[in-house]
Task: structure prediction
Amino acid sequence: MAKHGKNYVAVKAQVDREHEYQPVEAIKLVKQLKRAKFDESVEVHVRTGLNVRHADEQLRGTIALPNGLGKDVKIAVFAKGDKAREAEEAGADVVGADDLAKRIEEGFTDFDVAIATPDMMPVVGRLGRILGPQGKMPNPKVGTVTMDVAKAVEESKSGKVEYRTDRTAIVHLNIGKTSFDEQQLLENYAAVIEELIRAKPSAAKGRYLRTVTIASTMGPGIKVDPSRIRDILGEGSTEAAAAAAAA
Result:
């Protein structure tokens, strides 16, 4: 088992590992415990009660975070002709067809999202073993296989992210940076929880959201009360009002 350094151990000691914090408390703690010199990402990990071996209990979709991710999202688009020009004008970082597929086969994966027009899917399909494990395979269910490539590029650039359950029924999502203020992170967190509740499969049985954990890139995990799914933003407003009154 890997050993953590003294700084990490000291930070971890400030987190009650048995306590389930309210969302606003957890986000406040994540920011307070930031220890890296770079701007760390803030991640949320939600363990669901879904049985992902059943097709009707798998969870996958996209969400546009209200405050984005705080980073430049690199977009690769598979398209030809007018659609390729539309993608370039919309701000895509890499645009191509067979030539782009060849680059990826040779090891190029320096992009965050891949988008394709339907006619390019026979070419993109060959890249499944490369893009699939990285979560970058274009998929019509999440809007990354589309003729409206300009809209897809613009949405991805503005903070639209894909989510899906992994093999252990956990959803992992980035909700911003530690440089975001608490309200921005709280708004992104609330958007994620609301989306997961909205997208709950009809076949789901038992407790849906089992555990929720928030952590920064280099920080310890902080448990969040999974039953706290309503009026999350109201909680933040109450905290802000109390702080203003005390000032």
The two ends are 46 Å apart (CA to CA). The longest strand covers residues 41-48.
